[in-house]
Amino acid sequence: MYYLCSIGSNIDPEEHVARVVKELVTRFGRVTLSPFTYTSPVGMDSEHRFINALFLFYSKDTEAEVKQGFNLLEAVHGRDRADQLSSVKDRTLDLDILQTSPTPDFSQPEESYLQGLAAHLLEQQALPPGTEFADIRLGALKFGHRTATIDLDPSAGHIVVVD
């Protein structure tokens, strides 16, 4: 099954986003990421901007297994999913499954703040002028300004960015 998912973070976002990208690639293998952009919080009162991105991957795991893995990653990064108000509080990490498909064809997500990223990732359209990109680093690797495919080199165990 192909998955279209989102990453969000507004507590130390550069740190948490970089770590989770590595964790996602380690778990699922090849992951294609949209650019990472700064966005204002939606549906919550916060002074902290988010870093958001979309990502695609293929997995034989069920949707329930993928979501369970996402919840575990959020907890490892310090998010308290047991808190009933967690959806309206600042967060270290938010991973959501937006859509699943037996083919890598997806429609636009409903969330307005993700639509430009989706158009860029899925349809190769330019992002709106004035989009503020985030610099994400995995060791010496720097990405975040354009769509990138990240893979794990199994022979050496290294993370590889493939443009």
UniProtKB/TrEMBL annotation:
Enzyme Commission numbers on file: 2.7.6.3
Positions of transmembrane segments: none
Alphabetical UniProt keywords: ATP-binding, Folate biosynthesis, Kinase, Nucleotide-binding, Transferase
Pathway: Cofactor biosynthesis; tetrahydrofolate biosynthesis; 2-amino-4-hydroxy-6-hydroxymethyl-7,8-dihydropteridine diphosphate from 7,8-dihydroneopterin triphosphate: step 4/4
Limits of the 7,8-dihydro-6-hydroxymethylpterin-pyrophosphokinase domain: 5-101
InterPro entries, per database record: Hppk, Hppk_sf
Function of the protein: Catalyzes the transfer of pyrophosphate from adenosine triphosphate (ATP) to 6-hydroxymethyl-7,8-dihydropterin, an enzymatic step in folate biosynthesis pathway.
Family designation: Belongs to the HPPK family.
Protein name stated in the entry: 2-amino-4-hydroxy-6-hydroxymethyldihydropteridine pyrophosphokinase
